[in-house]
Amino acid sequence: MPRFFTTNINGSRALIESDDARHITKSLRMHVGDSITLCDAAGLDYYGEISAISPDIVEVNILQTLPSPGEPKAKITLYQALPKSDKLEFIVQKAVELGVSEIVPTLTSRCISRPDEKSMAKKIERLNRTSLEAAKQSGRGTVPAVSPLMEFAHAINSMKHAPLPILCYEGASVPLREALNQNSLQTQIALMIGSEGGFSEDEVSLAQKAGVHIVSLGTRILRCETAPICALSAIMYALGEF
Predict the structure, then answer these.
(1) Domain 75-238 has CATH 1.10.240.10
(2) Quick one: which of 60, 183, 223, 240 could link to 14 by a disulfide (CB 3.0–4.6 Å)?
């Protein structure tokens, strides 16, 4: 069943406008009476039927409201060190599909990519569109935000408030499995993944002093776009999401 995000919901009536309305009429060629699913981006799904349709606006009669089944039990924030080229777009797409709640691009000492403020603002805007499309495709009940770029020290200060903060480091001796076995029922998890160059020893030390769990993803060195998918998959498995 086609699925769209909208906040224009009032009781048993909802409206879909602009690009989504055009997509419904011109691409999907839907008609009055067709079934459709809406989501308010706050975790609720609305099941209904199209009651009126035009290329600019689609009106929906809401028949049933239920919690979105696509939202995981835990809130996971991914702090992703800024990678080169368009790798972050791929990471955002896959992280949203896997159930992440927020993505925070992070600037570490070994990040090769260091865009200026204007370029980064445009990138964040584009990444939020990627998140929206991934949320639609994967049946999410929320649209995970891609936040503004954060310096490493600020990111660690933010992470330490989570019940389970994790930093994945190739030099760690403790496997991710161990941290999850001890804390797998936590409802808030902060996960940090490095860029192509990983983390410096000083950064790992700072994270340790802040109470962040320093863990390994195994004996193989993963690419920076593979590591978050691996870690998020393992976390979701530990939480019983798979």
Answers:
(1) no
(2) 60
